[in-house]
Design brief:
Largest sheet of chain A: 6 strands, mixed
Strand content of chain B: over 45%
Structural class of chain B: mainly beta
Order of helices and strands of chain B: EEEEEEEEEEE
Number of strands of chain A: 11
Oligomer: heterodimer
Strand content of chain A: over 45%
Shape of chain A: globular
Order of helices and strands of chain A: EEEEEEEEEEE
Largest interface: A-B, 22 and 21 residues
Radius of gyration of chain B: 13 Å
Number of helices of chain B: 0
Helix content of chain A: under 10%
Shape of chain B: globular
Distance between the termini of chain B: 37 Å
Number of strands of chain B: 11
Chain lengths: 110, 111
């Protein structure tokens, strides 16, 4: 089955710096890769996603890149702000199911 | 605006009790999912359903069952609760597109 590994598990940056979270997946048939943000005490919410026929997607300060050959994808957050502090989950979709990574706790220090 | 609700935010049960967690969505979504969330393990899929009365096992179905008698409602059942089922339980739903909408979660403690 599909397996998704996410690194790092915790990440601390200064406000204004960039943050990068990386995920690898095992099944080349996976075709959709979303990223969810979960603020403390709240539900996960989709922030950006990418499909397997696209290499990069950007939405304001966040971007996702996908390398199908290497089976990894990354989340990039530029000009980080304290409100970016949260747990971020990557996921890979295969046959209607999402397999999630272990999560990254991002802390942005003012 | 999609709304996914769960019957309880916090629940405390005793070992051996039968526990019902309810999830309701109001957007006529076909697909519904139950996950459990534990620190360092991410979200793990317990069961999912693509249609009424249809269910499929996820990655960790042991000790759980589900029921989907109506399209808008998906129930997770712990037949005999155990302490290792203490966790955060999240329900999600999706239409024929990719984004999953999550409920607020139920924090279950089994003592």
């Amino acid at each position: 089955g599909e397996n998704v590994e996410q690194h790092p598990s915790t990440l601390s940056v200064q406000e204004g710096d960039s943050a990068v979270i990386k995920c690898t997946y095992s099944d080349s048939a996976s075709n959709y890769f979303p990223w969810y943000k979960q603020e403390l005490g709240k539900r996960p919410q989709l922030i950006i996603d990418i499909r397997s026929n696209v290499g990069e997607k950007k939405d304001q300060r966040i971007a996702v890149t996908l390398n199908k050959t290497a089976k990894h994808f990354s989340l990039h957050i530029t000009e980080t702000q304290p409100e970016d502090s949260a747990v971020y989950f990557c996921a890979a979709r295969k046959r209607g199911k999402l397999i999630f990574g272990q999560g990254t706790e991002l802390s942005v220090k003012p | 605006d999609v709304k996914v609700t769960q019957s309880s935010r916090y629940l405390v049960k005793r070992t051996g009790e039968k526990v019902f967690l309810e999830c309701v969505q109001d957007m006529d979504h076909e697909n519904m999912f139950w996950y459990r969330q534990d620190p360092g393990l991410g979200l793990r899929l317990i069961y999912f359903s693509y249609d009424v009365k249809m269910k499929e096992k996820g990655d960790i179905p042991e000790g759980y069952s589900v029921s989907r008698e109506k399209k808008e409602r998906f129930s997770l059942i712990l037949e005999s609760a155990s302490t290792n089922q203490t966790s955060m339980y999240l329900c999600a739903s999706t239409h024929k597109v990719y984004e999953q909408y999550f409920g607020p979660g139920t924090r279950l403690t089994v003592t």
